[in-house]
Amino acid sequence: MRFDPWNPDFVAHPYPVYDELRRERPVCYYEPTDQWLVSRHSDVNALLRDRRLGRSYLHVATHEEFGRPPEPEFQEPFWRVVRAGMLDVEPPVHTRLRRLVSKAFTPRMVESLRPRVRAIAGGLADAFVEKGGGDLLAEVAEPLPVTVIAEMLGIPESDRHLLRPWSADICGMYELNPGIEAQHTAVRAASEFAGYLRDLARVRRTAPGDDLVSALAQIPELTEDELIGTCVLLLNAGHEATVNVTGNGWWSLFRNPEELARLRADRSLLPTAVEELLRWDTPLQMFERWVLEDIEVHGVEIPRGAEVALLFGSANRDPAVFEDPDRLDVGRADNPHISFGAGIHFCLGAPLARIELMESFGALLDRTASLEPAEEPSWKPGYVIRGLEALNLTVTPA
């Protein structure tokens, strides 16, 4: 098998292909997506920090100057939302936005959320065990981060059912060469979510509450578009990855029962286990960057205007960095995985994601004598954001 992000067999088992890429073609051009694949940890880590690359190029050149066709007019509402958030902009705009938003994600602020996260995770786990199991993704993995981020933003409980579908539809645009239907779906979701947030922010500007939308609405330097783009990014990044780490992580443990038994026997391993599950089967397999100045990687010249695809899933299994990288080790101490990225775009919500994962896994372990998959799960067709369709489990209560 070769690198083929549209092949379900590759999406399910990409790691042997990554091994080959790291050994034989650590930097190679992939014509179907017009990208340069970079597969070794040292290179991925270095390029994430290299200011000669950017998530966008529009601060230095037009589409035409970069040899790229202009985006179709119907996509404008999507890009207006996305490019107003900090992920898809570069300094100095990125620096300003991150400084304003990071106040809500200080270590102290995030740690103060732990009791609430624990209570939500415990309630979801209780309901799941009482039912005798079901789809772990739909009943535990998805509601936890959606509830946490919705409470942070101040989304009324009656509207929270809208968030997950909007997020999933918006993220469809980040897949490789998305189909025309997926593009229109993403545009619609971005427009609806932006409209909802615009109305909410206007209410909170005059009648603020104790929530992040209210706090952002009081900042004069933040435009309305920037507020909306920031909140959309926080929702997407704040739960899409956490849902998939939960699903991928439990499926990883079921395929490594001795490690699951080890974690059951010693709950003090939860912090290292979460890091290892993030490494071993990371949900974000690829992160794309634009080349703003000519670069050279392993003697391969990559010109200005090219796009590089940094293969996080491959970097996290690199034997040059991780001892016995294909072995799941819930006690792995030395674990410099890059599942949250690196450099200026390092995930702002990483500390919150870690708390959610530890509390979620801990709640389920505490309340069950055993969890067993009822069937082998299927992977979603997406490759960039990689996760399971469902994870149906049977439960024996503790």
Question: If you had to describe this structure to a student in words, what would you say it looks like?
Answer:
- It is a single chain.
- This protein has 398 residues and is of the alpha+beta class.
- 49% of the residues lie in helices and 11% in strands.
- It has 17 helices and 10 strands.
- The chain has helices at residues 8-12, 15-24, 41-49, 76-82, 93-101, 107-112, 114-131, 136-141, 143-153, 163-171, 180-206, 212-217, 224-255, 257-265, 270-280, 312-315, 350-367; strands spanning 27-30, 35-38, 53-54, 133-135, 286-291, 295-297, 300-302, 307-311, 368-373, 392-397.
- Strand 1 and strand 2 form a beta hairpin.
- Helix 7 packs antiparallel against helix 9 (143-153).
Alpha carbon gap, first and last residue: 43 Å
Strand percentage: 5-15%
> Which radius of gyration do the C-alpha atoms yield?
21 Å
Q: Structural class of the helices, strands and pairings?
A: alpha+beta
β-strand number: 10
The rough form would be described as: globular
Bin the helical content: 40-55%
Given the structure, what is the number of helices? 17
Average of the residue pLDDT scores: 92
The largest β sheet comes out as: 5 strands, mixed
Encode the helix/strand succession as letters. Answer: HHEEHEHHHHEHHHHHHHHEEEEHHEE
Strand order of the largest sheet: 1-2-8-5-3
**Parts with pLDDT < 50 across at least 5 consecutive residues:** none
